[in-house]
């Protein structure tokens, strides 16, 4: 899935990843200053539900 994010959205997305620990302040500021940040995502959503009748 391709996404196009504003700078503040891209900076927020960075904070949700392990890369935030290694990103320098300059990189974070560069994201904030970016008008449009294009990125590609790949994720899996799993839904687990407990069977209420068996417990």
Written overview of the protein:
The protein has 55 residues and is α+β, with helices and mostly antiparallel strands. It has one domain. 33% of the residues lie in helices and 15% in strands. The chain contains two helices and two strands, in the order E-H-H-E. Strands 1-2 form a two-stranded antiparallel ribbon. Helix 1 packs antiparallel against helix 2. It is elongated and about 55 Å long.
Task: Tell me roughly what share of residues is in helical segments.
Answer: 25-40%
How do the helices and strands follow one another from N- to C-terminus?
A: EHHE
Number of strands: 2
Indicate the radius of gyration in whole angstroms. Answer: 17 Å
End-to-end Cα distance = 39 Å
Spatial strand order of the main sheet:
1-2
Question: Uncertain segments of ≥5 residues (pLDDT<50)?
Answer: none
Provide key terms for this protein.
alpha+beta, two-stranded antiparallel ribbon, 2 helices, 15% strand
Map the helices and strands.
Layout (H helix, E strand, L loop, with lengths): L1 E4 L1 H9 L9 H9 L3 E4 L15
Antiparallel strand pairs: 1-2
Helix pairs in contact: 1-2
Summarize it.
The chain is α+β, with helices and mostly antiparallel strands.
């Amino acid at each position: 899935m391709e996404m196009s994010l504003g700078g503040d959205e891209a900076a927020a997305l960075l904070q949700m990843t392990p890369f935030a620990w290694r990103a320098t302040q300059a990189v974070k500021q560069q994201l904030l200053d970016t008008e449009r940040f294009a990125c590609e995502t790949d994720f899996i959503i799993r839904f687990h539900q407990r069977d209420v009748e068996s417990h």
